[in-house]
């Protein structure tokens, strides 16, 4: 345990307290004020590590969790995870501050909102600070779940539910693929720690599972980071409240995939497959996102596509940077290519700052005017001057203009793609030139949508939105967070080297540990002379302005693209047909009669158990060690047979219930006879409770009437019941006759010494096999809740496809 | 809906029997560490006492007198058990490591205290909560 563990769990613990606090303070005080401290404290805590991390220290601490499966909660803090930690908590603080003014304390279910938000924050911190891949996976999925809950925050809206489901299905699909990849990785490397895997790169890269593991893990990363073609969930995720879009869907969660790629670069980097997948998909996403962003009319949708495009940019930079690990390169070439990864980290921070502030400003526009439709907006410049300034700062930074931080990282991006076009590895000979071209074209589109965002909203004619209240500038509380981010956007432009020394270089050292020294003397400067990169930027600006002015002329080109060929349409159709097929299959055997289901269950038992007995030749009956059969045994058995037969032939339900109960009690006598008091007690109580349950249900059941059924039906029942009886008897006898391994009972005999308990049974339950018991009571409780909901829900007959 | 029970004989016996069963349930739970018993049996016996009340009286009057939401009780039980497991991790041990030691307490003398008992309390609560949730929902179903 370390303080870092505690920091990861603070949001979770606090999330439990939020509903209690909410109940007390609302509507006097906004719940958000009480949550604000959580990310802020963690932020301060993480800041205290910056100087030590920048000296090259790393922090490592393990809390044992399930060591027998090599699953330990190991936290690991280095440059890369520190940057993410700072983003999560820093932007988290600002977003919560913003949400206090954005969400009404009178109308909104704030306790839900902050519980989900804190859950996400803790999970995200867990993702970036976990070294163990399984712990990483658990936190990864919690972020998907909390994202789902937050997108569906206004769950009464149809679009919200659709968006939430889409995000959930796609990211969880990716998460499961990633889990499979992780399992392969841990199989080939024999460890579950990412750090230890990095030491075994050679073993992993030689293994035949290498490629499969890589692709599966990349599917996870690409779904989470909304890379093409999985990007379709992000625009629909915009149904979430704007603070959430700013936080999860632009600044933090969607960067988890990028984090994963960066974190695993030392393991997979240097191979052509990794280079091509990450760079290729990244560039494709960059182009796809920027081209699609231009045609959006909803401001948030525009920002969503721009996020997709920017994520593609960062992804492709990490791909380009991974080339530096290729074995056949000279030191100069390696260090040249490695700068791409450096640029990626820089752009990652910059993107969070400018995109965060842009989202918040769009939220303000939505909040004040009641619409986000570009067609309805316009002329807001004089009405909302501060928002206008903020949009200019964010938008121009995103477009890659000075004096904003986006300019610096965009220039570095151009440098990286120009260098990449000169690469002579990975069969880049002819294709290499495509990389800068795609990057440049995408940048032109990026420029255009930034201009749309800034000028279509704020310039032009004020169209007098049909809202009763007069539109005015937002209150200072709403503006505070985007202003702080905008200040950072400008600040980073003027002091890039401070950022570089404190944050970027240590992070670079964790992405490319072997090449950490190449950036030691790296200076970021705004002006490098009139080189190709600057020319490219100037070209982007000129062509961008021309195309923006002529937008009306060529906008129609977008309409030529058929709607049926969109990715979302494919997604909907796949989902539809899946639902149809599974519905058909389910309908074909779910008859609604318990007796049919019992036949399925018992039939399965016969086939599975009987089949395996037969296949593995498990039948060997050995009676030599049996205890002699006493008169009591015979008596009890006869009694049980009588009870069983009574159930079969009785004419009234009451008799049957009593007979079943008697049967159970006789079984408990057997336990007494065999000196198992715990079992006997349990059986007695269980039998009592179930009989009582029967009696309670008794009122609901119809009179037992002589049912006229077909002979065939009765024959099937007879075969199934005799079959089960036979199989169970054979298994019981065979279990006594075979000894596959030594008895483990010796271990439990020491229970008094090991667990301080004289009662072995109880020691097994609560100590030796504690995890079984824990999961059992969990299942029990879930089953109880299931019964409760099923009965209380009571769908009306004919409602939907539910037939009771 | 269950018919309102009016059987004086059952009600009279139940009033006495419930006390005995509840005492027995607690005894089973406490003695579980060294003798037959434990959280599961103790919890189930406890639940059966309340079920006897359901049968003798009716669900409404029992619910009025025991105003506990058994769903929450079950959840609390599961939480207690899991947190006992986490407790081990806080002290640098594995998840679900149980500890025990002997203490000299006034009145009791040398007494063994074990974290397993806390875990067992969770088990008992989960069992009581679930059993009663199920039975009350089914019995209450109109």
Characterise this structure.
Chain A has 804 residues and is mostly helical. Chain A contains 35 helices and 2 strands. Chain A has a two-stranded antiparallel sheet. In chain A, strand 1 and strand 2 form a beta hairpin. Chain A is elongated. The model of chain A has no long low-confidence stretch (mean pLDDT 86). With 142 residues, chain B is mostly helical. Chain B has one domain. In chain B, strands 1-2 form a two-stranded antiparallel sheet. In chain B, helix 4 packs antiparallel against helix 5. Chain B is flat. At the A-B interface, strand 1, helix 30, helix 34 and helix 35 of A face helix 2, helix 4 and helix 5 of B.
Explain briefly what this protein structure is:
Chain A has 804 residues and is mainly alpha-helical. Chain A has 35 helices and 2 strands. Chain A has helices at residues 3-25, 32-35, 37-47, 50-54, 79-102, 110-129, 133-151, 158-189, 194-199, 201-206, 210-224, 233-236, 242-251, 256-268, 272-294, 299-322, 331-369, 385-399, 405-421, 434-458, 476-494, 496-511, 532-549, 551-554, 556-560, 567-589, 594-615, 631-649, 653-673, 677-698, 711-737, 745-749, 751-755, 760-768, 770-793; strands spanning 59-66, 71-77.
Topology (SSEs and partners):
The complex is a heterodimer of chains A (804) and B (142).
Chain A: H1 3-25, H2 32-35, H3 37-47, H4 50-54, E1 59-66, E2 71-77, H5 79-102, H6 110-129, H7 133-151, H8 158-189, H9 194-199, H10 201-206, H11 210-224, H12 233-236, H13 242-251, H14 256-268, H15 272-294, H16 299-322, H17 331-369, H18 385-399, H19 405-421, H20 434-458, H21 476-494, H22 496-511, H23 532-549, H24 551-554, H25 556-560, H26 567-589, H27 594-615, H28 631-649, H29 653-673, H30 677-698, H31 711-737, H32 745-749, H33 751-755, H34 760-768, H35 770-793
Antiparallel strand pairs in A: 1-2
Helix pairs in contact in A: 1-6, 3-5, 5-6, 5-13, 5-17, 5-21, 5-22, 6-7, 7-8, 8-11, 11-14, 11-15, 13-17, 14-16, 15-16, 15-20, 16-17, 16-19, 16-20, 17-18, 17-19, 17-21, 17-22, 18-20, 18-21, 19-20, 19-21, 19-23, 20-23, 27-31, 28-29, 29-30, 34-35
Chain B: H1 8-31, H2 39-56, H3 59-65, H4 70-90, E1 100-105, E2 109-114, H5 115-140
Antiparallel strand pairs in B: 1-2
